[in-house]
Amino acid sequence: MADKNTPDIIYTIVDEAPELARGSLLPIISSFSNAAGISVATKDISLAGRILALFPERLSEEQRVSDDLAELGKLVKTPDANVIKLPNISASVPQLEAAIKELQSQGFDIPDYPADPQTDEEKAVRAKYDTVKGSAVNPVLREGNSDRRSAKAVKEYAKANPHRMGEWKSTSKTTVAAMPGDDFYANEKAATVTAAQAGGAKIVFKGKDGSETVLKDGLNYLEGEIVDATFLSAKALRAYIKKEVESMEPGVLFSVHLKATMMKVSDPIIFGHFVSVYLEDFLAKHGDKLDFNPNSGIGALEKLIAGNAEMESDLKAALAAKPPLYMVDSDKGITNLHVPSDVIIDASMPAVIKAGGIGWGPDGKAADTKCCIPDNSYSCVYDETVEYFKETGTLDVTTCGAVSNVGLMAQKAEEYGSHPTTFEIPADGTVSIVLDSGEVLLSNEVEKGDIWRSCTAKKAPILDWIKTGIERFDVEGTGAFWLDKNRAHDAELIKYVEPALKAAGKDIPIMAPREATRFTWEEMRKGKNVVTITGNVLRDYLTDLFPILELGTSAKMLSIVKLMNGGGLFETGAGGSAPKHVQQVIEENHLRWDSLGEFCALGESYNFLASSKGKTKAGVLGAAVEDATQKLLLENKSPERKVSQNDNRTSHYWFARYWAEALAAQDDDAELKAHFAPIAKELAEKEAVILEELKANEGKPADMGGYYHADPAKVAAIMRPSATLNAIIG
Predict the structure, then answer these.
(1) How many helices (H) and strands (E) does the chain have?
(2) 468: nearest Cα among 454, 486, 484, 481
(3) Which of 59, 400, 620, 628 has the fewest CB atoms within 10 Å, measured from its CB?
């Protein structure tokens, strides 16, 4: 159980744009909550906070921080958990190294990241740092399955105020290209652990020479747990990349779409193969002279050779000799192969599709794109979507239905929990999962350089996911379980789903992802609301794909995680942590981050507090949050892109005002009504001066005092520039 002093609500400290927004929004939330006797506290799950928590012995007493992620990991297993979780950085190696360098410059005595550890000390440091790489936060906090959907007010606003969509044409040359085989999908094996097999296990590599290496020890499998083992052939991957590069049509951009942040072991390696094949001519000539890891991307190579005229010229020539690359930022020359953390499939693919199948090339012009998504487990979703829109044309967002998702993610389910059990194979041989009894549960023959991984899904989360999926299907009336009977893992899941549906008397279709993709687009195009009931990776991908097309962004999604032990986790939508937004703040003090996701999560958090703890005032606050959110949308007070327009800070003023007005107008709680009536009046009367103060410094550079570890006082000065508003709110 949680301590009796556990705050009513935990609001997370994170990174980048949502962290800047917290500087403005949290004081408002705390002020309104205090009036209702509701306590709000913070926990730091930022990348910088997680790094500092690793090395308390190297820091002064004043510099030390608590391991808030570990503390939250314990809290979410209790019924007292009520956590509002904002997007945090899932760090790639370049991001991790940049954060370390910044912290060192601020006087924190933390070690460098050992890229190639040799000594025991370096290996120990590397092991510590590896715990904060990639998706280190979500698997710890997600002790429940995801129910992600758009709030009604958000959906209605999107239909009434359609966002800009690119035009799809049947002549589009945009395609999705997957490996012809020998990928994770083709090589996957799976088994459901029996009572006799439950217990300890290890992963063993046996070389062709007879040598054995234990890759991972201390595993423990529960009865009913689904265990997978698969690999992607490096040889087949490189042949596929070479073929796709060589078969490019003129005028089409080349791109790869992975998730190098979440899949922090496998996808950076896959990314590196794309870089090394694409730059094979340059690396054949100069590779031996350089300490260059292709996994770090072309951006790292450019820094490495800066000032070497011959190499710079040869790199330019090598890039010019290959098909033009899809650009992350054509203005700054940042290509799709520049940095692994920029290659985020769930954001990049919907952007291409929303634009009508086009991306930006190095010449700054739009063009069709070949989208390489190597693994057939999920590439089919995007392939089917692209082909569907070529056939049917652009989606009409004014009439389409809403697509929600119930995702299996509790207790590190599926691939996103596979980081500790993913390996780049050192030599030809066999990788086996060996139970303590000596039984080989699963085994794969592999070659040097192959990427092997194992992941699991436990029985209790699976059953909870099926139950939640049925509940959401009953609400929406249309949907499907996205499971492929020809995929080993999904075949094991189906053995749970079919009996559960029969027992519940439900006729919910089970469809392979490609079939389910087309079904969902067709049904939502008819105006129907559709629930997609999926595994963890598809949960992540679909909760960007559909919302970005139907709402214009995935950041406005409501994400409720019903924790399995009775607590609640309220995530503020997908969409990442928006580094480009931070750059705009630094350059011209305008933050266009939209806190709509935070508003939706806040309302649900209050409602949960009211229903789970009987705090009626929380319910009143929650209802008022919904009223304020609806009015904010109707009055068009959300942030816009340019200086002098509404930004995050002005939207928070309007939210606070509408929230106070809703509380002053309600009759369910006389005490809250009396408290907020004068606040609402003062916020309205001083509108002009507040807005003037909020916008006074726009257009000028802003100093945050750090990117990953900003100065709280400087952030407060940037995000709370209105003395008038601060005096009213407190």
Answers:
(1) 27, 24
(2) 481
(3) 59
